[in-house]
Each structure stands twice: as C-alpha cells, then as structure tokens.
Specification:
Elements: E1 10-12, E2 50-51, E3 60-76, E4 79-80, E5 84-85, E6 92-100, E7 115-119, H1 125-134, E8 139-143, E9 164-167, H2 169-176, E10 182-205, E11 208-211, H3 213-216, E12 224-228, E13 241-248, E14 262-266, E15 276-277, H4 280-288, E16 292-297, E17 319-326, H5 328-339, E18 352-356, E19 372-377, E20 380-389, E21 400-404, H6 409-417, E22 419-421, E23 424-431, E24 436-444, E25 452-458, E26 462-467, E27 477-484, E28 490-500, E29 509-519, E30 534-540, E31 545-546, E32 553-554, E33 563-571, E34 574-583, E35 597-602, E36 605-610, E37 613-624, E38 628-636, E39 647-657, H7 680-690, E40 695-697
Parallel strand pairs: 6-7, 7-8, 8-9, 15-20, 23-29
Antiparallel strand pairs: 1-40, 2-17, 3-4, 3-10, 3-12, 5-9, 6-10, 10-11, 11-14, 12-13, 13-14, 16-17, 16-19, 17-18, 18-21, 19-20, 20-21, 22-24, 24-27, 25-28, 26-27, 28-29, 29-30, 30-33, 31-32, 32-39, 33-38, 34-37, 34-39, 35-36, 35-38
C-alpha cells in the first residue's frame, strides 16, 4: 500500500524506535530523494508545548531499554587467558581440575567436579555444555577449531547451569597440554537499564499497555520494559515492569503506516489509573466539532520542515501540547493542497485521525510515537488516538496523524478477554521444497476453561501441525505448530482461525507469511561453491544473475522500493565463507540507517549489511551448527534515488562440511537465536538503540 505522491518529501515519522526486523518483509527504513539535499523549507520551531503536570497523566507509560553485560575470567595453573561469553549462558564461578573432553559430543565421563575442555565442531555449543554437566563437570571451556575468536550463543531456553566460556584455538591447544591443572572460570553479569524518548504508550488497566506498532515492530520483549505512570525519565527506571507478550495488529503495514497499533501484555498486573478508550461515536463527534485535544510525550521539542530533520532537544520531563481534532476529509484536503496531489492520494485511511494546531508551530514529533491523543469528555479524559506519523514536525499544512483507536475496539477486547495468539508469524525467505516449522503461542485471557481447534485458509503452502490446546485453563496457555512447504514462488499468506468450544469466549487469528523463491541451478558454481550440500535459490522482484563483468553473481535489476533475493540452502554442519560487495546509494549522514543496502541473513535472522561503495571483502567465517541452514543475501532499495552501479555482488562462496549429513527428514525450524557463532548479536543491539529515526516517503 505504498502511496504514489509526486512530491518526495521527507516524512519524520513521529516515532523513534524503528528496529530492523529479523524478517525480510517487515518495516524498513525509507528515504526520499530530497533527503540528500535537505533544503530548508521553513525555520525550525519549538514543538513541545509545555511541561505537563505530574499528576495529570497517570496512565502515561515510558519504554525502558534494558541489557545485561557479562564479563568472563579464566585462569589455569595461575595463568590468565582471554575468554569470551556465549549469549544465553549462566553467570557463576567454578574451579576444578582441567579435563579434555574432546569434541564433547557425548557425556564427558570422569568429569565430576572438573572443568571440561572441549573443541568446537560437530554439535551445538549448548549440547557440548550439557554433555559436560551430565558428566558432573562444573564449567566448560570451548576452544575454536579454526583461527580466531568464537562468537555464539547457547540458544534461547538453554537449560544448563554451569558457566561456559570460549577461547581461541591457539590458547585451547596450550590448555590441552595442561590437563589436570587447576582451572578457574568466572562469569559475572551487570544489568543496565535506561529510559529514553524512543516511544510512549498508555496504560489500559490490569496488565495491558497500548502503543504504536512501529514502536515494537520486531522488538524483542526481553530487551524492553514498561514504566507505567512515568513522568520524569531521569529516575524510576528500576520500577519498570517486564513484557510478557507483544501483539502487533496482523494487518499492520509498515510502508503505509496503517493499522499502526500494538497491545503489550506485561508479566504482572500494575496498580495504576488507566485511560478510557473513546467510542466511535465520541471520536466522530469530537472530530466534527474540531474539539481540543492533548498529546503528551518525551519527544523532541525542535520541529522541522518537510525535507529536514530529525528533531532534537529531548526532555526528561513529560511535555504536553494543545491541538485540535480534524475530520479525515479536512485532513485530506489540507495535505492534498500542501503536497499538490489528490485527497485520495494523501495516505489518510479510516484507521487514522488527524490533529493540528491552528497557529501551527506546535505538535507531536519524533519520540512521541505511541503516546495517547486525549480529549476531555463530560465523564473525564478519553483516548481517541495513538501518535503515529507526520510530515515534518509542526509545520503549516501538515497535520499530525494518529491511529484511530475506536476502529480497533473489537480486536483489543478479543486479546484482553478471549484467546490471544501470536498475531504475525513471518517465515522469511523460504526456498521451494524446504519444509519449515514454527510454534505459535496462545493465551487464554478469559475466565473459562476452553478446548480449541483450528482452521487455516489462504495459501496451501501452510499447514497445521500438532497442538496442546485441550482443556486450557483460564489464564493458561498452549502451543500450536504450523508448517510451511512452498510449492510455488512468490509471496504467500495464510490465516489461522481459532474455534472455541465456548461461544462466550472470543478468539483472535494469526497471519502467516513467507516469500518463496525458486531454485537457481545456473548460479551453482558461479557463486563459488560446487559442494553438493549447497543448493542455490533466487527470487524477489528480480532474481540474481551471473556477474558478466567479474566473478560471482550480482543482484537483479530492480526499481525503487524493490528487492532481489539470493539464498543458499546448506545441508550439514560446517564452515561457510564468502566475499561480498555493493555499489549503492549511501546515507552518509547516518551509515547505520541505510538507503540502499545489501543485507545478510542466517536462518532468516539479520546479521549485518553493507551500503555505499564497498569493494569485495571477506565476511567472517560463519560456523553452521544445525543440520540445515539458509544463508540469504537481499539487495534492497528505498523508494527513491539511484547511485553507483545500483547492484550487489557475492563471490567465492565456500562451504566446508565438518561431517557428512543426509538430507534432514525433520523440518527446518526457524531459529530465534543462532547456535554457531557469527555477528548477529551486536547488530540487533545496534539497531535497537541507534535506528530510531524512521522516515516515510510520500
């Protein structure tokens, strides 16, 4: 649902937390042609209004970003050695005689009260650690099977309890000669939490928080908390409540910024005043009357014109601004005149409501996203909107646009009082003929014990698997497995419908999606690897091609807002290496927020990207620890402007198996965390804290 408006103007999404998705088809950072010139169209203006009174917004909720830092220590025979941490591992201290457990692919016998020294390879890090602990080991040292350090994870849900550290191969070989010597392993952790102006939210009561979908799109609940009733960001972060579930509306369109709504479930109930949501009648009436409205948030107080930005001057104290509601027809007319287009081409849908300030110079801005738009009724304040997007900040002729919450009353009620299910499950890229499986989580938020059954409609590529949804207690949960077996290329979508045995219990539905791509036998060998364990696939808007001017392969010729996809399906464990290059439009002002770029995914998890003019360079070797893996490169363009060759390149692909593995008979399960090392972790954190300036083009 892209809007085709002739004026390509920089739109400052009134947001600030845009996260790169682990999926290839979620929100991406767009940039218009004018973003390179940034011609000033008007002077900046203070948009923050005034400080809110501390007790006027008790339902206001702040996002709290949390992360844990781990420090490792290793001493053997009173000699210190550099060591690394495996994510999802346990903190702790342990000491004991060093014992050589080889590859750690079986229970390490005679390891009781000892520290296991294990070589990397053959099986997952987590299995090695568990095999040590099963033999009575108190700690694990895993040394590399190749030159360099190990970067990896023990995987979400790792059940081991002993500390696990990594060392280089050279140090590991030295330690082999010290078997029987005293080894001391220590992992300590420190948690850091910080409140920032990334987004706001509103508290609906009990355990529910309302915000914009673009604030939590693809965000990991483990990295965020919510601080209900917050006023001053400089303190109180320690009082925030952890997140249990995030429900993004299944029709959320990150490009059109439509259905921009999400419901957040906290891990525990919060005793705090809640905001009442306005009805459709109230919303329509107040809009027709251009009634006064209030917006609050911690967003930037310096506005900017279309084509400029982003904002600055983010306060710690909650600020509010007075606006006036407008009907959607009025909003379309104002935007149509400013953009020199038709009312139908302004991007304003029935799921939105607009508000502006008659004299302009005031309005919500970046950092205010997700916060509430409030009207005062005869019975008290009611929320009519969620801060969503705008063109510039507080500029004449560009009203602020908000999600119209009254349009989502049924959806919200179902999640809060009925059967809630994972709203969107994106399988990412799916090579034809490769079966994948995923698990959807369900929660019974009703007061009844229910039996659940399911139907699936849409693409025949998706199917239902087993479930544990009989006799689901009130407040309890269950799981439903869904599988994917694509037989044709292209975008595939399906809907999972829940059927309850109690008609009094409403049930939500889930959207399944994938981008299926064809085999590309012509690329075999051209890309570099002729190993029979590697099968090549390509697709998207245009498939990849042999590079006629050099070695390797190149992305297909695509237009603005399109993508060209290359995938290698690898059967077996081993080492995967390649070289890559790109010649594309670069965001020189903020390299972490790319315009056109070549992205790398491992099992549909984003690892990193390159953008601009990058000559061929070797990517660090990826160790594949699963029976099968999908390595995917995506060259993706933003909606405007072409620079350089406008192509991406891959060559010298080499897969070196560590063992021969037959074609798996079990489905490939989409991973939520890697198990073989690489560079995934750092980028996800970078994106969470650094890419909060999302833009939209018109």
């Amino acid at each position: 649902m892209k809007k085709n408006i002739s004026s390509a103007l920089l739109i400052g999404l009134i947001c600030s937390l845009s996260v790169f998705s682990s999926s290839l088809f979620a929100s991406k950072v767009d940039s218009p042609a004018t973003s390179q010139s940034k011609t000033s169209l008007a002077s900046t203006q203070i948009v923050g209004g005034q400080e809110a009174q501390a007790n006027d917004w008790p339902w206001m909720t702040a996002f709290v970003f949390t992360f844990e830092d781990f420090t490792t220590s290793l001493r053997v025979d009173n000699q210190s050695y550099p060591s690394g941490y495996f994510s999802e591992g346990s903190a702790g201290n342990a000491s004991g005689a060093l014992i050589n457990c080889g590859l750690g692919d079986t229970t390490c016998v005679n390891a009781d009260a000892k520290v296991c020294l294990i070589e990397r390879g053959n099986i997952n890090f987590s299995e090695k650690a568990l095999n040590c602990e099963a033999g009575g080991g108190v700690a694990v040292i895993i040394y590399n099977n190749e030159v360099g350090e190990i970067s990896g994870t023990l995987g979400a849900g790792f059940s081991g309890t002993i500390p696990v550290v990594s060392v280089t191969r050279s140090d590991g070989l030295l330690l082999l000669e010290m078997e029987g010597k005293l080894a001391e392993v220590s992992i300590s952790s420190s948690s850091e939490i910080q409140q920032d102006a990334s987004c706001g939210a509103s508290f609906l009561g009990d355990k529910w928080v309302l915000t914009a979908a673009h604030c939590v799109d693809s965000a990991s609940a483990s990295l965020f908390k919510m601080n209900v009733g917050e006023y001053d960001l400089s303190d109180g972060a320690a009082n925030a409540t952890a997140i249990k579930n995030i429900y993004i509306h299944p029709q959320y369109d990150a490009d059109a910024i439509d259905y921009d709504i999400a419901l957040v479930e906290l891990v525990s109930f919060v005793d705090s005043p809640a905001i009442k949501l306005a009805s459709k009648n109230t919303t329509d009436l107040y809009a027709i009357e251009n009634s006064p409205a209030l917006v609050a948030g911690w967003g930037g107080r310096v506005g900017y014109a279309p084509g400029e930005g982003p904002t600055s001057d983010f306060p710690d104290i909650l600020h509010e601004v007075d606006l006036n509601l407008a009907t959607n027809d009025e909003c379309r007319a104002i935007l149509a005149q400013s953009l020199d287009t038709t009312a139908q081409n302004t991007g304003i849908t029935d799921r939105m409501i607009c508000a502006t300030q008659p004299s302009f110079g005031k309005g919500s801005c970046q950092g205010d996203s997700g916060g509430p738009l409030i009207v005062q009724t005869g019975t008290g304040p009611e929320q009519v909107g969620i801060v969503s997007w705008g063109i510039g900040c507080a500029e004449a002729g560009y009203p602020g646009v908000f999600t119209r919450v009254a349009e989502f009353s049924e959806w919200l009620n179902t999640l809060q009082t009925g059967i809630a299910i994972t709203q969107i499950e994106d399988f990412g890229v799916s090579p034809l003929g490769v079966t994948q499986e995923s698990t959807l989580q369900l929660v019974n938020n009703s007061t009844f014990v229910v039996d659940l059954s399911f139907t699936i409609s849409g693409s025949s590529a998706f199917g239902l698997g087993s479930n544990t949804c009989n006799n689901v207690a009130a407040g309890g949960g269950c799981e439903l497995k869904v599988n994917l077996n694509p037989t044709q290329a292209g975008e595939q979508n399906a809907s999972v419908t829940i059927i309850t045995n109690n008609p009094a219990v409403p049930a939500s539905s889930a959207l399944l999606s994938t981008q299926s791509i064809n085999t590309a036998a012509a690329l075999s060998g051209v890309a570099g690897s002729t190993n029979s364990s590697v099968t090549w696939y390509s697709g998207g808007n245009r498939p990849w091609l042999a590079n006629n001017t050099g070695s390797g392969v190149q992305s297909g010729i695509i237009g603005n807002d399109q993508q060209s996809i290359l995938s290698a399906y690898v059967v077996g464990k081993g080492s995967f290496s390649f070289q890559w290059s790109v010649s594309s439009e670069e965001n020189v002002d903020d390299p972490t927020d790319p315009y056109d770029a070549l992205y790398l995914y491992v099992n549909n998890e984003l690892q990193t990207f390159i953008s601009g003019e990058v000559a061929f360079e070797s990517y660090p070797t990826i160790t594949l620890e699963d029976d099968s893996s999908i390595i995917t490169w995506v060259y993706r363009k933003d909606p405007a402007t072409t620079e350089g060759d406008d192509k991406a390149y891959v060559r010298n692909v080499v897969f070196t198996p560590t063992q021969v593995t037959p074609i798996p008979t079990t489905p490939l399960t989409p991973s939520t965390s890697g198990s073989g090392g690489g560079t995934a972790g750092w980028l996800s954190i970078l994106c969470l804290v650094g890419l909060w300036g999302v833009r939209r083009t018109k």
